[in-house]
Write a structure and sequence with these properties.
Blueprint: H1 2-29, E1 46-47, E2 52-57, E3 62-71, E4 74-82, E5 91-98, E6 109-112, E7 117-126, E8 132-140, E9 146-153, E10 160-163, E11 173-174, E12 178-180, E13 184-191, E14 201-208, E15 216-224, E16 231-239, E17 242-248, E18 256-261, E19 269-272, E20 284-288, E21 293-300, E22 305-312, H2 313-317, E23 327-331, E24 340-348, E25 351-359, E26 364-372
Antiparallel strand pairs: 1-23, 2-26, 3-4, 4-5, 5-6, 7-8, 8-9, 9-10, 11-13, 12-13, 13-14, 14-15, 16-17, 17-18, 18-19, 20-21, 21-22, 22-23, 24-25, 25-26
């Protein structure tokens, strides 16, 4: 009887602690929604040329790691909000919807904001039925333990958790979801440590044949040194089982990795590219099968520039050092190196939309740049 009373006391203490924590954190994270984001152009963050810039979420607290996806006749932009440049601590995941191609944005929707778990969207895509799928990075207060939940939405407003796979190695992040015919839905993952220099890093694939309800994990490379480790990868299927992926590099390497597969992701080839105007910043690929062009979007941290390189996919698939010179689409105004970047892009009715964040160590805003999709690829020497 005494043991039962002790157990009940502990349960009550835990419930009271969670209630107090919720009252403390939720008002900090659930910032009232601003009006639908109007196009912006300022001396701080600006679009260049024929690109246009819209504000998705104003700089109240640290809004970052935004991602875009089409959903029927609308575009959904997800992002996280916390107290700084970390997935740990107080953080929740949110979304806004655009019905006019990214020109304006709706009021804010909360995807998930558990006061005792730190959540952030880490990869998005569409299922075979057109629904939007979101990988959620969930970090418990017990530091070092990461869960990965998959959420599904048909309208961008309500989100249902449909999977929580048990993975080993435990990924730091699972990236975007894309479809490979005769294989299923696929994501790439990477595991290891951004900080430690010793070998032990890995990357691989996740495949689902049931719309994301269950996943099969496979390791492609393990035991990697930091400078051999592709992270935060964006991948596209080119047809015929060919997959092209671009990942960022770590350890001050200042270049992008290129990963290619000829057999639907069973085997891979990894190589460095000639893209070196980048440091530890996430890339995003868009492939247009009608033109054969692939666009590589990334944020040049330090230089404060959003860039893209457009090329025929066939010309770089076996020639990773043949990427053409970049175009500059927008400029940020971050105070510190890491307080901007991590581009994620999507195609919408002949235009490309790319989202990124920029700000200070405490307050960051989320933006979307819209630009016409290029109809011509360039060569490594800059020619068309």
């Amino acid at each position: 009887m005494i043991m039962e009373k002790d157990m009940e006391q502990k349960r009550n203490m835990k419930r009271n602690f969670n209630r107090r924590l919720t009252k403390l954190l939720v008002p900090m994270l659930l910032v009232p929604a601003i009006c639908a984001g109007e196009p912006v152009q300022s001396n701080e963050v600006r679009a260049l040329g024929n690109a246009r810039l819209s504000l998705v979420q104003e700089a109240k607290l640290y809004n970052s790691w935004s991602m875009l996806r089409t959903l029927g006749d609308k575009i959904v932009c997800t992002y996280g909000r916390g107290l700084g440049h970390t997935i740990e601590g107080s953080r929740g995941a949110y979304a806004r919807i655009s019905h006019d191609g990214g020109h304006t944005w709706s009021s804010e929707v909360c995807i998930v904001n558990d006061p005792v778990v730190c959540e952030g969207v880490e990869g998005v895509g569409n299922g075979d039925d057109g629904a939007m799928l979101c990988w959620m990075n969930c970090r418990l207060r017990r530091k070092g333990h990461i869960l990965h939940d998959l959420y599904r939405t048909e309208d961008g407003v309500t989100y249902e958790k449909i999977a929580s796979p048990d993975l080993s190695p435990e990924p730091i992040q699972i990236t975007g979801i894309f479809s490979v015919p005769d294989v299923g839905l696929m994501s790439l993952w990477f595991a290891g440590s951004y900080k430690r220099d010793e070998p032990g890093n890995a990357w691989g694939t996740l495949v689902s044949r049931d719309g994301g309800r269950t996943w099969i994990q496979r390791t492609v490379e393990g035991g990697l040194a930091k400078t051999e480790w592709p992270t935060e990868v964006s991948a596209v299927h080119l047809g015929g089982g060919r997959i092209l992926a671009i990942g960022r590099s770590e350890g001050g390497l200042k270049r992008q990795f290129q990963l290619t597969s000829l057999d639907g992701g069973l085997t891979w080839r990894k190589a460095g590219t000639n893209i070196r105007d980048v440091k530890e910043s996430t890339p995003s690929l868009i492939y247009d099968p009608s033109t054969g062009l692939v666009a590589n979007y990334y944020y040049h941290r330090g230089a404060k520039k959003l860039k893209r390189r457009v090329v025929r996919a066939d010309s770089v698939f076996d020639n990773p050092e043949s990427w053409p010179p970049p175009e500059v689409l927008a400029e940020g105004n971050e105070a510190r190196f890491y307080d901007a970047g991590n581009v994620n892009a999507v195609e919408w009715r002949g235009r490309h939309l790319a989202t990124f964040y920029s700000g200070t160590e405490r307050d960051c805003a989320v933006y979307v740049v819209s630009t016409p999709a290029s109809t011509e690829g360039r060569t490594a020497n800059g020619g068309r």
